[in-house]
Amino acid sequence: MAGGTEQVGAAEDSEATSNGSLIAIAKRIRTLLGGTGSVRITDGTDEALIDAAKYLYVRERAHILAPWIAQHAPGANVQATATKAAAGANTYNVCTAFSFIFAAGATAPTAINLGIRIIDGTSGGTTYLKSSTISLPATAGAMNGIALSGLWLPGSVNTAMTIEFSAAGGVNAIEAVWMTGVTVTD
Fold it and tell me: pTM of the entire structure?
């Protein structure tokens, strides 16, 4: 526009600010990881940085309502599963830490390999936020586990979140699950 100023709509301005913030966050991540700090959205590495920046951007803008914990440590040969109820309208659950423990009793169990999952939904669901496997050898007193913290695994709006083993471990096998998180609204 000659001789004047161009007005940018609020939505366009907000999107430009968001994209600028995401690029700045991605540059900072790259610098912290030992890179140059320049971000080119041309390869998978840069796309991963932008994805990480999006999560950080959302996390910083989220309004945290309440912390929560869900856990289950049943007896031998029982599937460990714990569910955090749906957060409610316009809110969602975010898992910030979890642990899975798989242990043998005083008598050796049958060796087994099971799936471990954080599910966006209820028990048995197939929308996995995290999924892996864990094994237990046929050795009395054996123990295996995984624990992660410092996470930001957001679930869907108004949807439960579940942590569970894929099945019971068998005779003389003991499972335990634990996750903690926050309820969030944007």
Answer: 0.69
Assess whether 44 and 106 both reside in one domain.
Answer: no
Instruction: Give me the domain span that covers residue 123.
Output: 64-185
**Separation CA 107–CA 172 (nearest Å):** 6
Residue 140 lies in a domain: yes
Provide the domain count of the chain.
2
- Pairwise CA distance, residues 116 & 174, whole Å: 14
* CATH number for the domain harbouring residue 107: 2.60.120.20
Consecutive 10-residue averages of pLDDT for the chain (186 residues):
37 45 63 52 55 62 84 96 94 95 96 97 95 96 94 93 97 97 87
Residues 86 and 139 in one domain: yes
Q: What is the per-residue DSSP string for 37-106?
A: S---TTSHHHHHHHHHHHHHHHHHH-EEEEEEEEEE---TT---EEEEPP--TT-EEEEEEEEEEEEE-S
Q: Tokens for 140?
A: 């009395």
Per DSSP, the three-state class of 119 is strand
